[in-house]
Each structure stands twice: as structure tokens, then as C-alpha cells.
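F.,

This is the one I mentioned.
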């Protein structure tokens, strides 16, 4: 626990997604030794900029104690980079997290086959059903399913694994307790009974746009293979694929067979460029690994139940369950309007905004647009009475 305090101090001083935490494990017998060396030792290590050294001087160790106490209240486990329980596959990447915050029980990911099932948040019904079926059957076969807890493909994949009574890991781009994607709150809670919800960010950390590409390196590191269900040409899923290729040239990349359609441009390009293996069912993935076999015929046609589909937000469809409140009159629920005279960027921004308030940083992450480009688009959509600003810099459709 002692080392944990100093690793949390380290992240609060210089941030996340850095190669410097791993380098310190080779340079010093313990992070406590490094901390006690003070500014002279920190500078002597040659790892840190003047700004980082200033931050380290100005960050009190008490910050760590406050975070540890909050985790104790939430019953979160904490694992630091030099702990025996820290996954080897995660330590092996260039920029492993210094600290993992865990709700649930992190499975033995080093000795158990794991597949990341990823894809767009604005998934088609084909993508929703396929991700559910693939995750269901892989989990039934004993594979750990890893994904990012987002809407669309991620959500459907986690639910498929849970329906199979399998193990799944949800990697978040914010603090575990942060009220992000409220509609997935029950799913995240269920995951903790059959796996783990994890993050490198401490409690209360907001989901800033730059967290999600950083989060993707953890998803790829924890996985033996990456299955891309549905991804457009600018999908964040491609960042996860690139991370996997950078981390390990031997990681296997798969892409689900899909139509020649803009929603599958990214997926199809992976296959065309021979980066990904084309798959049609879960057995194609199992067969790609040596010495991995399935002895029981599974239900390849497994599909999410109608009541599950109803609460998985998909493009152009209003759920009939919002914040746990049922309604039979869908006309009372705002839905995305169709046949609008919008350009491509305006269209993408409009569909990145849902029924619950969405912060501008999250919209930026979903669309890949910087905030300075988003602002005039949001203004245009407001003037056309398609969205409204409801709190701070958050927006919802109307």
C-alpha cells in the first residue's frame, strides 16, 4: 500500500499515459525511494521537464491519501505498476498505467484468452446484433471479452458476455464513479459481478476527449486479439487497432464481414489492406489461435432480447426505457430527425448528441472534431432548433 501512495502522487503530478512510470521501475528499487530523493534526485533521473519537476514539488502526498480513502468508500481495489497482481501484458507496453482503479475482480488476464470487441457508438442493428452474438459465443467458449463501455457496439458486447454468464472487462476513460452514460450504469454494475470495470483515472475524473484514445491502449494491451464489428473511416476503433499493432506485431486483428457502406469503411479497409482477418462467426476467431479449441457447439445465432435492444441506443431509434422509466408513447421522447439539409460534419455532430446531456468534450471525442470547429456547428444546430444547451457546455437533442 505504501508504494501505491507514491504512484498516485506521481500520476497527480505529471499525468497519465506516459513512458516515465515504467522507466522509474527500472531505475529505482521503489517509487518511495525516488520520492524521498527529492527534487535533486528527480532532476538527476533525467526524465522530467522543468514544468513536471515544478508540478512534483507542488503536489502534496496527502492528495494520494484522499484518493485512497475515496476508493475505500467505493470498495474499489487499486493495483500499481510494481504490484505482483499487475497484469504482465499491460506492463509490457511502452506506456502502462501507473495505477489501475478496479471495481469488481480483475480476471487472470495473462493466462486466459481475451478478445476486445469494439466498434462505433452509432451502430446499426446489424452491428448491435453481431457484437452481442460474437461476444456471447466467445464468452461461452471461455474467452474474456474486453471493451470500452460506450454506447453501441461496446455496450452490446458487454451485454452479450453477461448473457452467456461469461467474464468481461470494461475499460473507462473517466473515473469509475463518474456519472457518464447513465443508461449503461446497470450494465457496469452487473459487470463487477462477472469481471471488472477498470480505469487509470481516479474517482470523479471527468471523461475528457483525450482520455479515450489513451484508454484504447489499455483495451488493446489486455487483449490477445481485436475484433472490429463496425467502424467508419474515422472511427476511434481504428486507434485501438493501431495501438495493438504498435504494442505487439503478433496481436491478431479481426473484422466482421459487413456491407460496402460508409459505416463499415474502416472495417473493410482493414481487411482490404490485410491488416485484419475477415470473420463471419466466433469460430473463425478461435481457429486463428494455436492450441485453442472449442469442444461444445454454441449458439452462433444468439441475439439480444427485445428488451435489451430497447435500451441500447442506436442510430435513429428512441429507446422505451430512459433512466429506468417506462413509456408506451414514444412520441413523448425526443428522437433524431431525418432528411435534414445538413453537411456531413453537422450530421455527425447531430447524431453524436442524444437524449441525455452530452458534454462538448464527449461530442468532440465522438466526432473527431476539435472544440473550435464544434462551436459554430453546435450554434447552427441550436438555431435550427435541433439541439439545445442544457447545462454548462452540455447539449441534448430536442
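My design for it:
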Amino acid at each position: 500500500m505504501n508504494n501505491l501512495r507514491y504512484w498516485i502522487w506521481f500520476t497527480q503530478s505529471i499525468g497519465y499515459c506516459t513512458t516515465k512510470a515504467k522507466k522509474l521501475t527500472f531505475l529505482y528499487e521503489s517509487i518511495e525511494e525516488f520520492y524521498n530523493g527529492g527534487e535533486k534526485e528527480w532532476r538527476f533521473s533525467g526524465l522530467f521537464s522543468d514544468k513536471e519537476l515544478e508540478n512534483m514539488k507542488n503536489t502534496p502526498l496527502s492528495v494520494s491519501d484522499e484518493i485512497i480513502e475515496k476508493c475505500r468508500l467505493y470498495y474499489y481495489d487499486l493495483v500499481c505498476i510494481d504490484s505482483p497482481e499487475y497484469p504482465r501484458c499491460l506492463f509490457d507496453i511502452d506506456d502502462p498505467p501507473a495505477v489501475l482503479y478496479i471495481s469488481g475482480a480483475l480476471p487472470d488476464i495473462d493466462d486466459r484468452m481475451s478478445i476486445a470487441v469494439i466498434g462505433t457508438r452509432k451502430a446499426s442493428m446489424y452491428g448491435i446484433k453481431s457484437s452481442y452474438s460474437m461476444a456471447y459465443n466467445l464468452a461461452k467458449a471461455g474467452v474474456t471479452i474486453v471493451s470500452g463501455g460506450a454506447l453501441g457496439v461496446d455496450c452490446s458486447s458487454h451485454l452479450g458476455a453477461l448473457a452467456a454468464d461469461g467474464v468481461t472487462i470494461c475499460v473507462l476513460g473517466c473515473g469509475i464513479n463518474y456519472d457518464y452514460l447513465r443508461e449503461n450504469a446497470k450494465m457496469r454494475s452487473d459487470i463487477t459481478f462477472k469481471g471488472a470495470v477498470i480505469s487509470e483515472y481516479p474517482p470523479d475524473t471527468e471523461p475528457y476527449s483525450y482520455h479515450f484514445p489513451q484508454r484504447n491502449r489499455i483495451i488493446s494491451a489486455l487483449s490477445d486479439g481485436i475484433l472490429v464489428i463496425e467502424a467508419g473511416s474515422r472511427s476511434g476503433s481504428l486507434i485501438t487497432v493501431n495501438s495493438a499493432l504498435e504494442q505487439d506485431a503478433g496481436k491478431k486483428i479481426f473484422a466482421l464481414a459487413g456491407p460496402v457502406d460508409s459505416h463499415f469503411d474502416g472495417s473493410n479497409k482493414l481487411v482490404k489492406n490485410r491488416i485484419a482477418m475477415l470473420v463471419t462467426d466466433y469460430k473463425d476467431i478461435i481457429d486463428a489461435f494455436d492450441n485453442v479449441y472449442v469442444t461444445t457447439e454454441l449458439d452462433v445465432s444468439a441475439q439480444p432480447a427485445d428488451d435489451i435492444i430497447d435500451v441500447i441506443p442506436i442510430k435513429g431509434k428512441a429507446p422505451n426505457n430512459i433512466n429506468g422509466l417506462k413509456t408506451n408513447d414514444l412520441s413523448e421522447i425526443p428522437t433524431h430527425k431525418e432528411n435534414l439539409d445538413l453537411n456531413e460534419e453537422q450530421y455527425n455532430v447531430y447524431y453524436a448528441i442524444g437524449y441525455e446531456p452530452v458534454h462538448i468534450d464527449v461530442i468532440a471525442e465522438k466526432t473527431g472534431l476539435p472544440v473550435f470547429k464544434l462551436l459554430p456547428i453546435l450554434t447552427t444546430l441550436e438555431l435550427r432548433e435541433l439541439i439545445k444547451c442544457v447545462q454548462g457546455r452540455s447539449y441534448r437533442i430536442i
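The radius of gyration is 22 Å.

Talk soon.
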